[in-house]
Amino acid sequence: MARLSKGRKKVEIVKMKNESNMQVTFSKRRAGLFKKASELCTLCGAEIATVVFSPGKANKVYSFGHPSVELLVDRFLGRDLPSPNDDDRYNHLIRAHRNTGQRGLNKEVMDMQESLHKEKAIGKSLLESGREAYDRLSLSQLEQLKEALEAQKRKVEFEAKLQQMGSDAPLPFLTFGSALSSTSGDGASSSHGPNVGAPFPN
Question: pTM of this prediction?
Fold first, then answer.
């Protein structure tokens, strides 16, 4: 039976009471805010200064600015800046280069966070769809799936033991090769070791 969608609900914007949830939301929204500011600078050539203080007792300060936060704050406050000389121009170029590198790193971090969120969403969707697929299986189908998974588990454990023994170490005289291939009609028994190529019992 198809699930009935309740539609998109409007989330009420109120201050969170849970401290942990508040910090997680602040971290995500801050990254999104700085990303939008960076895109506005790149697309429109705007000069932006953004200062954010974290909630809670930590009260850390985070900032993003183009070309720099200090320059834009001084301009906003109407401070009289000294006339630039050669040293000031050189220092300004250094700060601009540093800010450019910082913006690039910020963009990489934001892109990685966005990719991580997308991967988590995809994984959650696959998990939910997998649960729905299992719900549609009958009891006999579930038992067959269980047997297949157990057979695969035995095969992996067997191959892991072989790898632990070492590929160069001589195999001892084993007689259980015929037991592994006994379920196959055309499988020949071997007295020199396990019949690795033989199919495992389901």
Answer: 0.36
Query: Which residue type sits at 64?
Result: F
**64-78 exposure pattern, b = at least 16 Cβ within 10 A, e = fewer:** bbbbbbebbeeeeee
CATH number, domain with residue 43: 3.40.1810.10
The answer to whether position 103 is within a domain reads yes
39-45, long-range: CB < 8 A, 24+ apart: 41/66, 41/103
| 37 vs 57: CA distance, rounded Å | 26
Q: How confident is the model at residue 46 (pLDDT cuts 50, 70, 90)?
A: confident
CB-based contact 182:198 (threshold 8 Å): no
> pLDDT at residue 184 above 50?
no
Q: How far is CA 168 from CA 159, 162, 191, 196, in A?
A: 15, 11, 19, 16
In this structure, which amino acid lies at residue 137? L
Amino acid at 146: K
